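User: Hey, quick favor. My workstation is busy. Could you predict this chain's structure for me?
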Amino acid sequence: MRKRNGKDEASKPIGVFDSGVGGLTVVRQIQTILPQESTVYFGDTARVPYGPKSDRLVRRFALQNSRFLIGHGVKAIVIACNTASSVALDHVQRHVGVPVLGVIEPGVKAAVRVTQRGKIGVIGTVGTVESEAYQRAIRSWGNNFEVFGQACPLFVPLAEEGWLNRRPTYLIAEEYLTPLKQSGIDTLILGCTHYPLLKPVISEVMGSDIELIDSAEATARELRSLLDERNMLSGRSEEPSRAFFVSDVPHRFLEVAERFLGETLGRVERVDIETIEE
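Assistant: No problem, here it is.
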């Protein structure tokens, strides 16, 4: 049953945060799948990366980031960071008064739905793969799934540097992905928000028989379903607004972000996130 919400509530923006720039692939998918929705993005560039940090610290960061977005009147929050999604999603959901979605479960649900043989691969950063967050989430759907994880740490700098169609990128992708291909998987989750930029390379290396699951796209589709269920989809006719905030070095963020979004951002504002109470 749908929940009733006022028109003003539905017209509020969607908040998205990440430890850096990668979460902009989620924003890009939101703009594609939910083009009428406004967004507020926060990249915690002063404290990136989250992966090596303790769970306690990541939960504190995630709640501060969420409080910041709440202060900008968002109607829902997407945690576009795999580390924060794995260790802080429940914590944030308990402490804020809007729907909160991570990036792990949507990608897992999409993979479980399309796999034919139950053999699913997951690629991500070293921290994401070693945390086994995706592996646990997949196995929670049943015992019929085999999960194969592969860390691809060089994919992040390649994406940020714009090395999307160069020979070294293909060679690195072959080195990382060949063992997964040989394992017999039929589905591969791109378990890092940077990786959609490398999708053409990954697809070429893996071949057409292996289904790629873009966790950014899956998250945007899950968000659409969630907002629709709660009667919170925007019905605006005017151009949606986009706001971008970072905790450090806006000019560097701009250089990389425009590649991730495929458009000019305009203004990016720096904020002191440490002043936000948990």
